[in-house]
Amino acid sequence: MTGTRTGGDGEGGAPNILVALYVATAGLQGNALGSDEEEITLLVYVLINELQNKIFMVKYEIYCEKIVN
Predict the structure, then answer these.
(1) Distances (CA, A) of 33 to 26, 30, 37, 64, 67
(2) Residue 15, H or E segment
């Protein structure tokens, strides 16, 4: 996960917002790792108000056209 600081200084302006981003892809494992390029299968981000120490938005998208058994 990564975090990015945006917003103001917390003194009446825009709140300090942390963005946590998680991206997952699908593909082969083991010796074949990296031999097949797949699209993003999961994208999640969370917005956190740093001053209030509260999560105020969680968003996720699942992209899956086929399921392999």
Answers:
(1) 10, 5, 10, 19, 19
(2) none
- CA dist 27 and 48 (Å) reads 31
Predicted TM-score of the model (pTM): 0.57
Which residues does 28 contact at the CB level (< 8 Å), separation at least 6? Answer: 35, 36
Q: Which of 1-5, 31-35, 39-43 has the lowest mean pLDDT?
A: 1-5
Residue type, 23: V
Beta-bridged to residue 19, according to DSSP, are 4, 47
pLDDT for residue 44: 92
Rounded to whole angstroms, the Cα distance separating 65 from 45 reads 21
